[in-house]
Each structure stands twice: as structure tokens, then as C-alpha cells.
Predict the structure.
Amino acid sequence: MSTERVTDAIKFAYWVPNVSGGLVTSDIEQRTSWDYEYNKKLAQTAERVGFEYALSQVRYTASYGAEFQHESTSFSLALLLATERLKVIAAVHPGLWQPGVLAKFGATADHLSGGRFAVNVVSGWFKGEFTALGEPWLEHDERYRRSAEFLQVLRKLWTEDHVEFAGDFYRIRDFTLKPKPGVVPELFQGGNSTAARDNAGKHSDWYFSNGKDFDGVTEQLLDVRRSAQEAGGREVKFGLNGFIIARDTEKEARETLREIVAKANKPAVEGFRDAVTQAGRSAPDGKGMWADSSFEDLVQYNDGFRSQLIGTPEQIAERIVAYRRRGVDLILGGFLHFQEEIEYFGARVLPLVRELEAAERTAELELAG
């Protein structure tokens, strides 16, 4: 099934491992590191082999295998200054940031990086972080209402003078940000619930989805695009999370997946499952993130196995292009051994994706002619 708009060339992003524990909650070896020197080299490698975006995670306290965390906005700026073309997306929580303060940071980051700073607005699922910091914890849809105001305020401050905003969560009175960004930072927002999809359609540039199969992607895309049309014919791009296991043989890739799950840190995964399942089901329609995730899904804590980017370079490239055909604009990849696997992906998978995209465009032109 195809959706209305299909990108010419799908883009690639990677999860920045600025949080300890890697991208799977498992005792399997993960040749990765959360320190800056490792991440600096990784960003330079990713940029060189064809990745266009990187997403800095955000956690403020130890939880479920992530004992140490670097703060996302400062870490993103450091990576921007170490690269030349890579766009770095910093994840932030409304409720822990005041939007005017973030807008000021974003404008500075834009000028220092030549327009490569972006923001991922995370409405929040981890109640313990908010309560430990003495901040109020809102119910599910209220968190998304706050995020909607946060997104609106950011965009206004970056594009308008004498901004006035009177919301339920934020008040801005005759505020002019100077200097403004040279390039307005792209605004990303994730979540699976109806409130998240509606927010994305109305206010975001990009919608990030947890791992999904083809049917799941199509359902979300149609919802987000319907919301965007109702909000004045906006265009929202779609990013899909996927844990990528590319190996020379399918057998080797599948054995790697089996080992990851077999060596899962069960107490950590179960603790995470208890927290996020409650959060997902707290959405009024029960469609929140992780509401139907299995134990295996949660070993990669954003359902990355569900996207099934697991196999040979040829198999993965074909599946990526099939997602593109359904309307996906970007693949957000996680890896077991980041440095070497991003190198492998750039050398073995990405060129195949470009070849398949070119062949499909040629075929479309021939049909149209």
C-alpha cells in the first residue's frame, strides 16, 4: 500500500549513545560507549558514510540499564561543532524546559552550527524523573497538550517578533528573540497515541514512530496526514525507529537477535515494561507507546525489532525501500556495535538503497511517459 507522498531518497539517522547501556537492555557484548570521544568519532563516521541526522537521547536519572547520561542539548552542540554536515536532534522534555530558554539555546546552536540544530519534543513517560525533581506529573493527554503549546511557542519565537502567547501552560508577553536562527530548527515529535499523532499533524515538522511493521506504519501515516490536512494542509514527514542487524548472512543476523534476547537483563526489561505499559495504556484510547509491546520488543526499548531491519544487506535495503514506498521519509537506526556497524551499513546497505530507489524512480517515469 502506498500513501500520498513518497520521498525521492529516504534519509538516515542514528541514535546517539550518550546514555550508558547501549540500545538493547541485554548482557550481550555491545562495543559502544557513552563518552564524548567515542561519540565524536562516531558522528564523524556517520556523516562520512551518508547519515544525515543523529538523535541525542535524554534521561535525567538512572533507570533500566542506563546508569549514566549526558545531557542532550549540550552533547548535541558538541557533536555539531565536531562535524560539518550532520544535523543533530536534541531530545527535550516540556515541563523540564521553559520554551523561551530552549528557543534561545536553539538560536545560538543554529548560528554556531550553520543551521544544523533540531529538537525532538518528548512528552514524557518516566514519572519518576519529574517527581524526583519536584515537577508536577500530568496525565497522558495533558502532557501532549503541554507539548502542543511548547511546539507553538518555539516556532513563534524563532519566526516572529513581539510574540504573544496565552496558553494553559505557557505565557509569553511581547517577547522578541534576537538573534533569530538563520535556519529555523526542525521540530520532531514522537509517540503512538491519538494525541501524539494529532499533535504531530498540527504542530511538528516530523513525526517519530516506535518500531512498526508495514501495517503499523500505514495506520500511523494516514492518521498523521489526516490531522495535518485538517490543520490547513500542512506537510509532516515520517521517521521510523528500527534496530538494524546487518550481517553477511541471514542466519548470522538472526542468531545475533536470538542472542540479544536470550541474554536480556530480565529485571531491567520487566521494570521498564511495568513503567511503560502503564504509560501506554494511560492514553484514553489505549493506543499509547508500548501498550501492546511484548517482552522481546522491549529488549530494544523503542520496539526496534518490530521494523525487521534484520538480515543481509540486500534484505535490509529491500525492506527500507518498501517502507519508503509506504511514505517513510527517514529511518532512525540503532546498532549493537555502533562504530563498526555504521561503517558496514554505509558501505554495504546504503548504496543498495540508493540503487533500488533509482530503479523505482526510473520505472515510475516510464509508466508516466
About this structure: The longest helix spans residues 338-368. The chain is about 45% helix and 15% strand. The chain has a mean pLDDT of 93.
